[in-house]
Q: What sequence folds into this?
């Protein structure tokens, strides 16, 4: 039977393609380009998600999202979903697919610690994980789909990983972390964002640089941070705390 591996992101998809070649498997890899750990999810259409990302940062392509969901939902192949429960974006990806797939049978490859996410596993280590794929039980699939429906109803700006699973979080959830990494001395905005990401990656990987940059810009507009340069250009801009 043909197999389709579904990866939570373009980077993870690229690594998985390399891993399958190393393992000698001629199997398709389908990558998801969206990050469902942030932004509104109640809308649910590719056009609305693409429009929201265009407002925040580099635009997603509506046709790419539409093609992805259609390909997964109509696939005749055996589906193998890759994700890590310690990554907010990858866990959101799994829950969303569980909701979409309903009672259709599929397998999963879960990435545990210390890596915690498909995106963090070197491609040369992925072949050993291919054979760990296990079928998702009907109860597990139903629970995952129901959780995603609850999160969609809450429609919070962020979704974060907790010890109990994925949960909603307010728009200012990461603001204190950003401010905690800044000082009263000028520092690269990229360094502050990188330090904030590192601060929020143990034991869970919660947020990417794009959304942290958006929050940094909001903090600058609120005068909780000062900026020297265009804050949207995090490599050129410097930031510091007010006196």
A:
């Amino acid at each position: 039977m043909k197999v389709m591996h579904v990866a939570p992101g373009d980077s993870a998809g690229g690594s998985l393609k390399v891993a399958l070649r190393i393992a000698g498997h001629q199997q398709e890899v389908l990558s998801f380009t969206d990050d469902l750990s942030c932004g509104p999810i109640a809308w649910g259409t590719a056009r609305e998600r693409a429009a929201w990302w265009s407002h925040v940062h580099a635009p997603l392509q509506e046709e790419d999202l539409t093609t992805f969901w259609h390909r997964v939902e109509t696939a005749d192949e055996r589906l193998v979903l890759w994700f890590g429960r310690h990554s907010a974006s990858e866990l959101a990806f799994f829950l969303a697919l569980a909701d979409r797939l309903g009672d259709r049978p599929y397998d999963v490859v879960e990435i545990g610690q210390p890596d915690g996410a498909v995106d963090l596993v070197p491609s040369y280590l992925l072949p050993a994980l291919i054979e760990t794929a296990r079928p998702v039980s009907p109860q597990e699939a139903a629970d995952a789909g129901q959780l995603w429906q609850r999160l969609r109803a809450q429609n919070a700006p962020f979704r974060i990983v907790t010890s109990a699973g994925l949960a909603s979080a307010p728009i200012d959830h990461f603001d204190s972390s950003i401010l905690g990494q800044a000082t009263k001395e000028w520092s690269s905005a990229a360094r502050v964002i990188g330090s904030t990401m590192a601060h929020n990656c143990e034991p869970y990987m919660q947020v990417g640089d794009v959304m942290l940059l958006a929050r940094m810009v909001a903090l600058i507009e609120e005068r909780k941070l000062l900026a020297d340069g265009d804050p949207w250009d995090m490599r050129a801009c410097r930031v510091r705390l007010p006196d």
Notes: The chain has nine helices and ten strands. The first strand starts at residue 3 and ends at 7. The chain has a mean pLDDT of 92.
